[in-house]
Amino acid sequence: MNYARMWYKYKAVVLGGFMFLTIVLVALFAPQIATHDPARISMRQALQPPSAAHFCGTDEFGRDVFSRIVYGARISLSISISVLLLIGAAGTVLGLLAGYYDIADTIIMRIMDGLMAFPTVILALVILTVLGSGIPNIVLALSIAQIPRVVRTVRTTVLSVKQYEHVEAARAMGASNTRILFKYILPLCISPLIVRLTLTMALTVLNEASLTFLGVGLSPGTPSWGTILSEARQHVSSSPYLILLPGAAIVWSVMALNILGDGLRDVLDPRLN
Amino acid sequence: MKNTETVLDVRNLSVAFSSFGESVGIIDEISFDIKKGETVGIVGESGCGKSMTALAIMRLIQSPPGVVKGVIGLNGRNLLELSEADMRSVRGNEISMIFQEPMTSLNPVLTIGAQLTEVLRFHRGMGRAEARRKAVEMLRMVNIALPEQRIGEYPHQFSGGMRQRVMIAMALSCTPKLLIADEPTTALDVTIQAQILELMQQLGRELGTSIMLITHDLGVVGEICSRAIILYCGRIVEEIRSEDLFDRPSHPYTQGLLDSLPHAGRGGKLYVIPGAVPSPNDFPEGCVFHPRCKSAMERCAHEPPGFTELSPGHRVRCWLYGENAAAVSAARRKEGATA
Amino acid sequence: MISYTIRRLIAAIPTLLVVAVLIFVLIRMVPGNPALVMLGDDATATEIEAMEKRLGIDQPVPVQFFRWAGNILKGDLGTSIYYRMPVAQVIFSHLEPTLLLVLYAAAIFLLVGVPLGITAAVNRNGLLDRACMTLSMVGISMPGFWLGLTLVILFSVKLRIFPSVGYVMIHEGGLLESLKYLTLPALAMGLQRSASIARITRSSMLEVLGNEYIRTARAKGMLERRVIGLHALKNAANQILTQAGISIAHIMGGSVVIENVFNIPGIGKLAFDSIARRDYPAIQGHILFVAAVYVFVNLAVDLLYKFFDPRVEYN
């Protein structure tokens, strides 16, 4: 039992997992962790520098920035988890179909290629313009923009797996296509899918921050980290410190997911690299 | 070490690797020499340390995790004491090495010409045109047709045998004192093998280059080597002249290797030395070969034997020979076994 | 090579077609009537009808699409509702800052990322490797615009070296002046993107360094910097090139946000403003243009492969 070797193998998963867990905990226990009501306005306290009372100072409306960031975790997390579930489910189905049936492959992959040719932010912007703002709409917009990668990952796995012997054997024994897909092929897709979804979730947090930074997709008061950053931007000269923590929160979350994704990839299948 | 006839003088060379805190010995204090103009075979099965010996001599073993000790004498200098810069001017210049897989030993994205001329330009300070001319000459020397044209081509445009010729040309272009060839023909077709070996022997003679030929194939040793050094688990078990190799192999391991060669006209099952080569983590105590040796005695399991010189140029490391040899043979004759 | 290029261009057409259909459909789904937006709230019904006819939006949607697609093949991307100029011209007039920004950022990410990756690979598992890779991990996790804001604070507000907003066209102030305005945004995008370049350089170099021909090069006594810089790097180049192409595409996409932050009148800002202004032709034209640029960048990358690896076949 060489502990050194074991640690070396799992350290990324442990580190990334731990970092991500902190965000989850912050989101869950936001009311306990936040020092003030994030929506409470107090013009007299506007643009105060960091102090014992306000760890990160106050914004132009006198709201406590620290508390806003804490509640912002809820928004980022709920959006990215929703996107994860949506593209996980839809992407897997589309990927299975595309990998298994040729006709589906042509149609689905053409559309996916077309989607991938759009810059993510612009595509999401246009979709949000169509749908209007609100969290469900951001989730839908980001899901549509990011689904192609997931479909591609699943499809690639299906393509290589469907020629495996046990799959051929099952087919020879008369198993229906649906059964083959779900009982034999799907389980083999789980590992690459988990890695891809983790890394995509990292991108989702970044993309969501970009969108809300541009002021699109959420109502103005909502304390998404991107929104907080765009508010802070107005006061870059007078209160430069305002951009630090929201950015750090984004970096921490995305880094957690990237480290976790890399670690999972190394553990589940180093060949995927 | 000051013998002008000796080109390479290896004394007590040891190589070990450490990983995650544990140290594993690969080669244990081997000593041998190679004289000018000689072709010496280093023989053994896979995993016996023959390639490691070559890499140690070239100092191509990465220093952590590898640990190399001993003396490697090249014309009076200890290579292990040289600075890296000095060692670089030895490699490719005084000692060259060619490897087993010609398909992967050449850089696929550089032309043959570039790979040939860089040695000449670096070690001999030649200009571009001069180096190119010499490179063409080297290609001609290794019997590659149309060298002027082929010098601008890439490795993937050459066959395996031709790539090995290019490797030989590269290795010999600075007229090294020693050429180390690590299984140069193993990956080639049988028909090409003989050609390559002959080429190496001929060029060695012409240029006065000694050759250290690493191989597992005793047939190859018989073809072009004057002497063979048999390695097992990183230790020399026998050193024997080629003419004696097939007549008087002394160490049980050497005998086993010879017995497992297919003989034309001798039917029946092919002999295989029982057991398998142990991994460096599990080298046996005493004589390393004793678990697989049909002549093993009680002593072999506890004490590693020293060298016994059977005749000039023939030494063996086995308890069957040496100071107890007479008593042992007597005991065995009594038991009805042959010594 | 020419025939390969032509075949690739033809193969790209279906993708562009899908993009065209997708964007056309999406735009049509946007609520609001552009005729109304242009004329204002107190326009009469007749005026609106006339404007709709002028804009061509009174026709059924498929007809609109075919008319638009047909025009594109003639080189006519439509007329911008806001600028009242051909879209092609509008895009062209906004192209310079973005083009310069992309090239500037690309130079930065190559000059920073590749050496970083090589250092990490050569010092595998050592302190430098871990440092470079940690830095890269932070880099790929960072929003480019946040790095931009941080740089603004550092260089514009505190040190007053670079301007924080705006842009000057080359023909007005000269190339150097233009580059001054683009330095902070290019640094933001370039440094951020250099992280992924560093990672791919490292993994590609590690893979290459494990090959036999590297051992041969060392056995020939070649200087280590030649072994790494020529023998190894040239083999690793194509993977780095692929990532460079992807990064350029990302920079073009990310220009929407960065140009917004630094108030640069490039096509990214044009896209954002056009969406806000419901300027359909401009949005359509922009997206189609960017998609076409992606096709060209991919093609250029593919053609360059052979330059680094002579074994590459065009098929």
Précis, in short:
Chain A is mostly helical and 273 residues long. Chain A has helices spanning 3-28, 30-33, 65-100, 102-116, 120-131, 135-161, 165-172, 177-213, 225-233, 244-268. Helices cover 73% and strands 0% of the residues of chain A.
Structure commentary:
The complex is a heterotrimer of chains A (273), B (339) and C (315). Chain A has 273 residues and is mostly helical. Chain A is 73% helix and 0% strand. Chain A is built from ten helices and no strands. The longest helix of chain A is centred in the C-terminal third of the chain and has 37 residues, at 177-213. Chain B has helices spanning 50-57, 84-90, 102-105, 112-123, 128-141, 147-150, 160-172, 190-207, 218-224, 242-247, 252-259, 325-335; strands spanning 6-19, 22-35, 39-43, 66-74, 77-78, 95-98, 178-182, 210-215, 227-232, 235-241, 308-311, 314-316. An eight-stranded mixed β-sheet of chain B has the order 6-7-8-3-9-10-12-11, with helices on both faces. Chain C has 315 residues and is mostly helical. Chain C starts with a helix and ends in a 7-residue tail after the last helix. Chain C is globular and about 85 Å long. The A-C interface holds A 110-111, 113-115, 117-122, 125-127, 129-130, 132, 202, 206, 209-210, 213-214, 226, 229, 232-233, 236-237, 240, 243, 247, 250-251, 254-255, 258-259, 273 and C 14-19, 21-23, 26-27, 29-31, 137-138, 140-143, 145-146, 149-150, 152-153, 157, 164, 203, 249, 252-254, 256-257, 260-261, 271-272, 275, 278, 283, 286-287, 290-291, 294-295.
